[in-house]
Design brief:
Elements lengths: L8 E4 L14 E7 L7 E6 L3 H6 L4 E5 L6 H19 L1 H7 L2
Antiparallel strand pairs: 1-2, 2-3, 3-4
Amino acid sequence: MDSGHQETLYVEGPLCVCQGICCTWDQEFRIMPQDRNQEIGKITKQWTGIVREMTTDADNFSISFPMDLDVRMKAVLLGLLFLIDFMHFEQKQNKNNRR
């Protein structure tokens, strides 16, 4: 949302968010304007290889967006990256921490 509380961007994720050694591809979350007519950026969880995926909980993400995007919207997208990581790729740890 912008400062006038109007939705400005739309994020479309993959149909199935997969994690672990059976998912040997990147997971892409497309960023589009509200009218959804074109992709203007994306957040990607990168596949790092079977050895690294099996031996560590660390994830690699990339983010791309237009250089002329408002700095506040860039900050929102960076926050969205952390939210996507927490909600889609940290579920195993989240279930263990619930009491």
